[in-house]
Amino acid sequence: MKTVAGLLPGIDSRGVGGFVNVTGTRLAYVDKGIKYPTADYIMNRLPIPGELIPWDGLPDRILARLNSSKSIKPLVDGSRHCDLISYIGTWRKVGFNQDEIEVQARALNKDSSDPLPDDVVLKMARQYEVTEPNTPPNNPSIIYSYSNMPLSCGETRLERHKNVMTSSQDWGHYARQFDDFMKQANGRVDRREVAEAIGTKVTSHTFRELERRRIDEHKIRRFRRSPNLIEWINRDYLVTQLESIESPAMLDIRLPLGLDGKVAVPERSIFALAGITSSGKTSALLETADKNCQGPMPVYYWYNEMSESKLRLRIEDFPNLIAAQKAKRFFPIQEGNFSIADVLQPDAINIYDYLDRDEELYLIAQDLKTYFQSLGRGIVVVGLQKKAGQTYGYGGAMTAKLTNLYVTLDSIDGSPVFRGKGRARIVKAKDWASEQCPLGFICNYHTGGKHGKLFNDGDWHHG
Fold first, then answer.
1. Whole-angstrom Cα distance, residue 203 to residue 43?
2. What does the alpha-carbon distance between residue 460 and residue 423 come to, in Å, rounded to a whole number?
3. Distance between CA 178 and CA 75 in Å, rounded?
4. What are the Cα distances from residue 73, in Å, to 123, 254, 386?
5. How many beta carbons lie within 10 A of that of residue 206, not counting itself?
6. How confident is the model at residue 63, as a pLDDT?
C-alpha cells in the first residue's frame, strides 16, 4: 500500500503498517455553503479515536480507492525474481513474521501471469528467515545473496559477497600480492591479468577497492584512452655514494690522424666514424686495429662490405695485423647470419665496418644502444655512411646520443665526390686528452699508400 495524502476527502493512507487514517473532523464536505455528511464513508459503527478497523470493515469506496493505489504490482516475466525478493525484504522490514511472508509471497506469485514454482517461492521467502523481526541474520554470507544465479561477470552473488566481506588478514594478503605483481610487471598491464594473478576478479569489491586506494596513494595510474590498463608508478631510487664509486679508467687507445692527442677513450664507450663514400672509413678502422693489436685488449674486426680476398688486399698497408692474428691478438670476422650485438666481445676492442640498415635507418640509434648494453670494459668503434654536407651519418643526430666520440670525414671542398683530400671534424667528444676542449676541431688529410691509408695535412685546430 502506498502512503497517500488525500486519498479521498478526509482520507489518508499510510503504507508502513497498512493503516487507513480517517480524520474525524473531515467526515463531511461543503458544497455551495451547505455541509453534507460523507455518506459513502458511513461505517457500521463509528470508530473510537485511535481504534483499528479491520480491512474488511472499511467502506467499499475506500477499499476500491486503496486497491487502485497499491504499490504492489503483479509479477512480470523477466523481473519476477527481483520483484518478489524486493517485496519479501519490505515485508520483513515492516515486521511480518515468517508465516505471513510465505502467505503473501505465494499469493502474489499466484496472481502473476506466469507463476514461479511454489518450492522456488518458498525458498526465496525462507532465505531471509530470521529469529526475530528486524534482526539481521547471523550468517553474513547471505546478507546480499538472495540468489546463487550467476551475474553477467560470471560469479554468483554469494561469490560477490564473499569478496565484499574480506577480513583484514585477507585484505593484507591481497594488497601484498597486488603490489608485488605490479612492481614486477614491465610497464602497462591489463587489470584482468592482475586480478587473476592475485586470486580475485576484476569486478570484485576487493579488487576495485585495492585499485582505488593505490590510485589515491599515487602508486598506480590508469589511462583515459585505455581504461583496462594500469601501471605501477616506480618511486624506488638509490642515492649514489660518490666516495665509493671509482671513475672509469681511460684506455691506452691509439686512434688514426692523431686523434688520441686530443681526446681520451674510457672503458665501455662507443666511437662513431661517419664518412662520405670513399673518404677513408675502412682505412681509418683498419689503422685503429693496427695501432692497438699489440695492446692489453684483443681486437675483433667485424666487416661486411668486402670479401675475404679484398680484406687481405687492404691490410697490405697494415702488415702488423698478420702477425697479430698469429699471436691471437687480432680476429677478422666476416659478418654472417648472426646479430653483432650477440657476438660482441664485452672486454675487447670491437671494430665494426660498417653499420648499415638500408631503408630502416632509424634503427641505427637503437643498434648503438644495444651495443653499449653488451659492453663490459671494452669499446666499440663503428663506421657509418654519411651524406655530404650533413653533420651526422645515417640515422641522424640520435646516432650520437650514446657515443663518447663522434668524428666525420668529408671531402675538403664539401663535394659529395672524394678526390683524395679530405677534412676530419670532431663533432662530439665527452672526454679530452687535455684541458682544451676539442669540439669542432678539424684536421685536413689525404689518402695514400697502396689502398688509401690516411695521412695528416697539418695539426688539429679550430675550424
1. 58
2. 10
3. 44
4. 21, 97, 84
5. 22
6. 63
Would you list the domain boundaries of the chain? 4-68, 256-462
Q: What is the mean pLDDT of residues 346-357?
A: 94
Q: What are the φ and ψ backbone dihedral angles of 134, each rounded to 5 degrees?
A: 65, 20
- Smallest CA-to-CA distance from 117 within 106, 104, 103, 128 is with 106
Q: Which of the following CATH numbers is that of domain 256-462: 3.40.1190.20, 3.40.50.300, 1.20.1250.20, 3.65.10.10?
A: 3.40.50.300
93-102, 196-205, 288-297 — which is least confidently predicted? 93-102
Pair 192, 202: CB distance under 8 Å: yes
Q: Is the pLDDT of residue 126 over 50?
A: yes
**How many CB atoms neighbour CB 453 within 10 A?**
20
- Please state the rounded mean pLDDT for residues 319-340: 94
- Which residue(s) pair with 134 in the sheet? none
Q: Which three cell numbers stand for residue 43?
A: 461505517
Concatenated DSSP letters of 185-224: S-S-EEHHHHHHHTTS-TTSHHHHHHHHHHHHTTSEEEET
Residue 25 pLDDT exceeds 50: no
Cα separation, 398 vs 365, in Å, equals 6
Quote the CA–CA distance of 255 and 406 in Å, as a whole number.
13
To which H or E segment does residue 65 belong? helix 60-68
Most confidently predicted of 28-42, 202-216, 300-314: 300-314
Cα within 13 Å of Cα(178), Cβ side: 26
**Chain position carrying cell 463531511:** 28
CA distance 392 to 273: 10
Residue type, 344: L
The C-alpha atoms of residue 73 and residue 107 are separated, in whole angstroms, by 12
Q: Residues 6 or more apart from 363 whose CB is under 8 A from it?
A: 357, 395
pTM of the complete model beyond 0.70: no
Closest CA to 251 of 435, 428, 379: 379
Lowest-pLDDT choice from 34-43, 182-191, 305-314, 407-416: 34-43
The least confident of 35-39, 269-273, 303-307 is 35-39
